[in-house]
């Protein structure tokens, strides 16, 4: 009889285990992802999203988080701030424990209206707008993309040694391009460097020669490129080379995307650009090797943003010990995480209640050597 | 003066691209009355075609271009058969095929986006990247190549419409479709050929501008808008109007960007201002139709 009871007990325990195991298998941790599949942010959002997907697959291969698989709920906001908040609401209703925002800065801002109200943790691993954490006091929102102001500060600290007095600033008319140009202008003026001329190449232009003629006439010591649209930036570089201009070019992170090596072949040598990616960093080498093995293609910095983003989320949930939103919020705020992005030794942190986690000293300046993205020539803002 | 002459070459090249797109609109509008905003996407497909044929498959440039244009002839013909003819046969109002073609615009764009992704791709230069100085004029090799190719295309188009029987058939359908049918002109064939020719001309514009702007899936709509603006300025009545409209638009854009004391970025409003001005003041465009003048 005793043996029979033990058997029943064992069966019951087993059954409970099966039920629990089944529940675990059917009850993944849902992470919402808001990306842009068709709109203006798509060239950025797509590789970042690929990095998120790869990161989630890697985490799941290693057993997931808290013994549960990660399930990504991916929504497309088309880069439109007006529908982005609705996507956030949809994800919250679908049970997302965390939302990753990979679309435009303005769209991420709109999503905050939902995440603040529903107290849902939200992270943008890639947006660079300085105002995301200052305009809305949302304790459930964090930003780990390097700020626009950090980019210009890093680039300026590199350029400071060049004794620049008068510079040209050129950008495109995209929202992000204009935002970055604003940061660049403010940073340059704060450093006592005069923006002698500012030009804009509109989206869809077929030449940048009029703009480069004006810049040539202003005879600046250097030209800063704040644009984020690759075709328009290539037009600028073509006009620059065609006119035989010699002043140096310092660019925003846009020139760090690898497509330039093919679409601007022969135009890149000597251009410096700010980046958050150091190919010599051990974490980067490991990431590139693993990604190539899994996906059959080489990732680049934008993939790294997404990869870091999902791992930051998993790290916070893991330390929180549950998906309780308040516990995850507290864990996220206490983040101390070394990722793929950033200079060697950089860690994501949110000290003193700040919600921008990319170390201001963590960006690097690299230089094009021929058509190849070359070595790191400068680190940080000092 | 150096800047002005450089700009003259640059603006002429840009104006030629706009003019080709205006011509693509024109060859379809005249016999059918249908405005096809998908011309910009056809230009995009042409640019991607050049990338595939010349860069990837490494065909010689003339062979690659001929292959792309031949494919685009089929694309244009098929577009008319799929998106236009069924609606016309069903007696749908003129707006229906225009809307269907807007749908085709999305189909072309998204198909390319799915196939190639969001990244830009390099389109080869036929003469390489460099600067050519012809007396006081200076510009890129590509600018001179665009100008030469466009002038040759317009000359051929003019000869076709003015000197060939097939061209006269187009003109006859444009003037009075019912009368043209009564004298034995096959209107549906003319319509199909007009779309095929429109696709070839638009793709040529994409092939020419592609080396400068790279082939990317969002390049079509701005080109479609500039081409349409050029058409409104020049008028839909005559082939020369498309060329004149394109050149005027490009010169206005680039002279404003270079010399007007406007804050950066404001120059991009010039094309829209011109479009509104011409629609208000001279809705028929600068060059009136010959028949209308007589």
Low-confidence stretches of chain A: 1-24
Oligomer: heterodimer
Topology order of chain A in helix (H) and strand (E) letters: HEHEHEHEEHEHEHEHEHEHHHEEEE
| Structural class determined from secondary elements of chain B | mainly alpha
The radius of gyration of chain A is 23 Å
> What is the makeup of the main sheet of chain B?
2 strands, antiparallel
Q: Give the second-level CATH assignment, the architecture of the largest domain in chain A.
A: 3-Layer(aba) Sandwich
Number of domains of chain B: 1
Distance from N terminus to C terminus of chain B (CA atoms, Å) equals 42 Å
Largest interface: A-B, 34 and 39 residues
Biggest β-sheet description of chain A: 7 strands, mixed
Mean pLDDT across all residues of chain A, rounded? Answer: 89
The shape of chain B, in one word, is: globular
Counting DSSP H or I runs of 4 or more residues, the number of helices of chain B is 12
CATH superfamily of the largest domain in chain A: Response regulator
Q: Compute the number of helices of chain A.
A: 12
Q: For the record, what CATH class of the largest domain in chain A applies? A: Alpha Beta
Helix content of chain A: 40-55%
The residue ranges of chain B in which pLDDT falls below 50 over 5 or more consecutive positions are: none
